[in-house]
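re the bet — no i am not wrong, look at it urself. input seq straight from the record:
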Amino acid sequence: MSIQLKDTTGIKDGRYVATGICHNCREWNSGIIDFNSTKQPMIFATGPDEMNLNSNAMDAGLRRHDFYGTFDLNLQLARGDPAAFPPPNLSEVKPTEHRGQDDHEYSSSVHAVVMIGTFVVLFPVGVFYQKILRNLHWHYWTQALGVLVVLVGAGLGLGMSRSYNRSKRYNSAHQLIGIVVVLLVVTQATLGGIHHRIFKAKQQPTVMGVIHRFLGPAVLFLGIVNGVLGFNLAQSSRHNIGYAVVIVIVFGLLIAAALFQMRRRRRQEAFNTPAAQNFRNGEYPQPSANEIPLQPTYGPPPAYDRPTGA
């Protein structure tokens, strides 16, 4: 099967129009075309409108169409002598029985929301529970939920990758780093669980705990950076601006909350010192013999009588 493009192929009125002759196109492994048919089923797809390809490369990346459908074509009018191409009645070849429907990339959107929500919101909130609020219970459940969500997001990403030529080989930076990050997330959760069990039983630090403490920030950083690579792979790099804004807002709120909580804790610790408790109870330390009292320890001065004759 080969297609010979004619000189009339090109951009017309803002649209690319391909005019050509198809040789050996009557049948192939999975189908056949009946050139005697007056209603030969055909397929079409269009969009997305917001994509500007601006490339004539044969391997240029394409987005998934947002509208597709079928139509019927009278192929008897499309036949003719190749030497006299195009045939004189080519203008009469018009599609009939047009049928179409919208299409959406739901899996890619869900994958992005799930992964960004986990690495930008859920995991940092879990760290906030443990480091700032010192609440291991909520830290455990928040991070456990995050691990489950990451596994769901990874499954969506792997399944979706098979639908595109640019990702079906699983060799892009986003996919390779993503696989590593998922494995590290599972490792991080496992180390944290083992450390907690040992520490609870023996009240002693463990090597797993040390690794868990330093591996967590690295995994979080890799996951956030990989979000940028994901938008690039999906040919939606314009969304990286919004992604950066979300990161700044979320981490700004967490940092502000952490500073507020730390200031509040310092005030509470100062309020609970022995000196503060004595002050609230009205108990004051007596000065020693070598100390000069800040206030006199004697009573008020004696009263004086008014002089006579004054």
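see?? The helical segments are 106-131, 136-161, 173-202, 207-233, 239-271, 274-280. told u. also Residues 116 and 279 are 51 Å apart (CA to CA). so pay up
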